[in-house]
C-alpha cells in the first residue's frame, strides 16, 4: 500500500518510521505524465516489499515537504533510512527503481 504525505508534520512522523524500516518516497505531480506512468509500478513494488514503507508526496499539495527535501525535478524518488536520505533517483526509470539489500 502506498501512503500519502501532505504536511511537514506527517513528514516528521515518516522520518521516525525510517528508523525502523526503509522509506521509499515518490515525489510526484498531477500534471507529470511520467509520474502517472510509473504510479502503478510504484504501487506494485509497495505490495512486493511489505517490509519497506512506500509513500507519495504530491509536490503542489506539500510544497514545504518538497522544498525541505530539495526536490527540483519531476519525477524524483528518495530513499530514507534512520532519518537520512540514503539514495535518490531522478526520472521514470522502472528498471532502476528497486530496493537492494544495501539500502
From TrEMBL:
Short name of one Pfam family = Thioredoxin
Q: InterPro entries in the record, alphabetically?
A: Thioredoxin-like_sf (IPR036249), Thioredoxin_CS (IPR017937), Thioredoxin_domain (IPR013766)
Give every Thioredoxin domain span: 1-103
What keywords are assigned to this protein? Disulfide bond
Protein name (Swiss-Prot/TrEMBL): Putative thioredoxin h
* Top-level taxonomic group: Eukaryota
